[in-house]
Design goal:
By secondary structure, this protein is an alpha+beta fold. It is 41% helix and 11% strand. It is built from 15 helices and ten strands. The strands form three sheets. The chain has a five-stranded mixed sheet with strand order 2-1-3-10-6. Strands 8-7-9 form a three-stranded antiparallel sheet. Helix 1 links the parallel strand 1 and strand 2. Helix 7 crosses helix 8. The longest helix has 17 residues.
Length: 379
């Protein structure tokens, strides 16, 4: 069985341990793991499938599953009884594999965004560094206190793309795409309210740094430099922030009308329709993402489990990762579209227009919905 993947050095070492364990229990099969560069895995796989030389299994970006599924390139996991075990998986990352009513893959690695905050700046502003904001109302109140023209600090800094904005939409209970994948819901009241609130952080409350503007200091750099008190960030930056000696905390995304929520990042593992051994591939991928293997994977690599049953087996010494595990439980699946980059290309300029005051949130989101249905929801 061939398995194309994009793991790093440490991940690949653990992968080979798990493969060896599976091969001991399945002596009729061996797995050849081929490592690809992450940035090049999509064109490599597209080319291989075009000439009929694709792998049996592959690890791919979460946003690539829909494209491959709609090209009939992926095996339907329902054919192997996946519905009996699907409830084991964390809903948000699993949802990125649910394409047109069936599951076409499994999550193997998941992340999301949480709220990072600078404890030193909290103290300087007279705020309790152990009590980050729990609601958007508290977030605004604290953000204003953390903003100082004299010190050149801002309460918050953010990106302005669809993926980075999903925590706002999700916490306002605003799905971007309908469940059947045919309608864009950005023109609904919840989505408009979410966009209005996000824009108000910059235009009305003056607590956001404008980090989304071209040429501005990025949220990551400004947070490390002590200019931005709060940012959205994922677990991938924990080592960098810890190395910088920054005194920071990690908290859940503040709750909106629909509670705290976040987005989903990471990768999925899929079975290609060209395989001659779909059952064996399915057996391996289920084994790879089962609680025991997930526990080994996450403990050694400090990653968030994708299997709910693994949560009881993984106890991180790093308290930040515990927060991410908690946040992942209330994250929501990302919008399912054939080409997520097209969705970004369509919606991002409309959000920019709201942030700069060129359009109201209502006008921009209505325009975005029309464009998405025309350009991004076509099959």
């Amino acid at each position: 069985l061939t398995f194309w993947h994009t793991y790093g050095d440490q991940e690949e070492a653990v992968l080979r341990e798990i493969i060896a364990d599976w091969e001991k229990q399945n002596a009729s099969y061996t797995i050849q793991a081929l490592r690809l560069p992450f940035d090049g895995h999509k064109p490599k796989l597209r080319t291989a499938l075009t000439v009929g030389k694709g792998p049996d299994m592959a690890r791919i970006d979460w946003s690539y599953v829909c494209e491959l599924a709609r090209k009939n390139a992926l095996v339907n996991l329902e054919d192997f009884g996946f519905s009996k075990i699907k409830d084991q998986y964390v809903p948000a990352p699993l949802g990125t594999n649910f394409i047109d009513g069936v599951y076409r893959g499994l999550p193997d690695q998941a992340n999301c965004l949480c709220l990072f905050y600078n404890k030193a700046l909290f103290r300087d502003a007279g705020l309790d560094p152990e009590k980050p904001p729990q609601t958007w109302e508290e977030f605004v109140e604290m953000g204003k206190k953390l903003t100082s023209g004299d010190k050149g600090t801002y309460g918050f800094a953010m990106d302005n793309t669809v993926w980075w904005t999903l925590p706002f939409f999700n916490s306002f209970g605003a799905p971007l795409i309908s469940a059947d994948g045919k309608t864009c819901l950005l023109d609904k009241p919840e989505a408009i309210a979410a966009m209005e609130f996000k824009a108000s952080l910059y235009s009305r409350h003056k607590m956001e740094a404008g980090a989304w503007r071209a040429g501005s200091i990025t949220p990551e750099s400004g947070f490390i430099n002590g200019k931005y008190a709060m940012v959205f960030m994922g677990p991938w930056n924990l080592p960098k922030f810890q190395k910088s000696q920054l005194d920071f905390g990690v908290a859940l995304i503040p709750a909106g009308p629909a509670g705290s929520s976040s987005n989903t990042g990471g990768t999925n593992v899929v079975i290609l329709n060209t395989t001659k051994y779909p059952q064996a591939c399915y057996d391996f991928l289920v084994y790879f993402t089962a609680p025991e293997a997930q526990a080994k994977w996450c403990k050694k690599l400090s990653q968030i489990p994708v299997n709910i049953k693994a949560y009881d087996l993984v106890k991180f010494e790093d308290p930040y990762l515990q927060v991410f595990m908690q946040q992942m439980k209330v994250a929501r699946p990302n919008p399912v579209v054939t080409h997520f980059d097209v969705l970004e290309d369509v919606v991002n300029p409309e959000m920019e227009a709201v942030m700069t005051g060129q359009k109201t949130a209502a006008d921009a989101m209505k325009a975005a919905a029309r464009k998405v249905e025309k350009r991004a929801l076509g099959r």
